[in-house]
Design a protein that fits this description.
Low-confidence stretches: none
Structural class: mainly alpha
Strand content: under 5%
Number of domains: 2
Order of helices and strands: HHHHHHH
Distance between the termini: 51 Å
Number of helices: 7
Helix content: over 70%
């Protein structure tokens, strides 16, 4: 068992095999229909969103508060290895969440992207959630990532610039933490409560 659970790629492969078994076992008659593909996109959107927001919460609930107490000789383990890897998945999960979400909205219910982004009646909750998600994704790529590259030394800069960049990245990350709560509520409430 340790060989299976100790190997990330093997564990992921087993998860994918079980996913395929669930897909074919539960919905084999629907495979290939438009409803099936919308459901598949919804699954991918939720998966990417969990990865993105999960990493946002990891940074804000774990890494940022813990870093001041990490001994100086151990900090490079985080800044040179863990943070860059987490930021890779963080920024690409943001892209995947947004792109798949927009595709999903366009393929669902006759395509409602423009109605949602226009905050039309019946689409306000999902529209607000979409706008918050777009703002958060832009924040990831245009504020957090450029500043993290400087703060982590991926792009060489002077120490004072590095410190300012770290502060800016943290504030932008906290902004996304704040926006994530109403964004998640809007996304979930559209399906379960409705929209004015």
């Amino acid at each position: 068992m340790a060989k299976i659970f100790g190997n990330f790629h093997l564990a992921l492969l087993i998860g994918l095999v079980l996913l395929a078994a669930a897909m074919f076992g539960l919905h084999d008659g629907a495979i290939g229909t438009s409803a099936y593909w919308v459901g598949w996109l919804r699954f991918l959107h939720i998966f990417a969103g969990i990865l993105w927001i999960g990493l946002l919460y990891y940074f804000n609930f774990v890494q940022i508060p813990t870093m001041p107490s990490v001994p100086a000789e151990l900090k490079p383990g985080v800044t040179k290895y863990i943070a860059p890897a987490a930021l890779f998945w963080f920024r690409w999960a943001a892209v995947a969440t947004v792109v798949i979400g927009l595709l999903l909205a366009e393929m669902s219910q006759g395509g409602y992207v423009m109605r949602a982004l226009g905050l039309e009646a019946g689409y306000r909750a999902i529209g607000i959630g979409m706008w918050l998600g777009l703002i958060m994704a832009a924040n990831v790529w245009f504020v957090i990532w450029p500043n993290q590259k400087r703060a982590l030394g991926i792009v060489p800069v002077a120490d004072d610039v590095k410190a300012r960049s770290a502060s800016m990245a943290m504030m932008a990350s906290r902004t996304n933490l704040i926006l994530s709560l109403p964004m998640l509520y809007c996304m979930v409430s559209q399906s379960h409560i409705g929209s004015p």
